[in-house]
Sequence to fold (160 residues):
Amino acid sequence: MGRSRKIIKVKKIGADVINLLNIKLELIKKIEELTQDIAKISFEDENKLISQLDKYNELMDKRQSLMDEINILDDKLSRMKLSSNHTDDFIESKRLIEADIISVLNKIIDIDKKIKINAEKQLVSVKMKLNEVDKRLKTSDYELDEEDKKPKGFFLDTKS
Fold:
């Protein structure tokens, strides 16, 4: 292969890498938006609990599908053979895009930490409510209705 063909191939691979990194950055920005939407979901209103859980699950599924797409892009990027013959423009573009990706990922991590804290608060709240109900059941004069005391089945001895 001639030198000019090799340079053209290197430039093509470089352009492909930049294109894939830009696509990855856009997908990560979409994940950030979904993560912000997830963080806004409130489970305080018991009347809207089911719809909020459905919305939460839907957003988490969308987020996971975007992560799967990113994994595919990462596989493509790792299979590309990068040489040291790239221009300074390519190296600088790659560095800037990767810095943007890291910045957005750090924002997502911060939002995820807030989501985790809120989820832990909700869990503690639910545990307290369950403990309160359990205490009431143990300390109250819980009495069965006459209907509940009646046997629910019969034993028939057919061997005698």
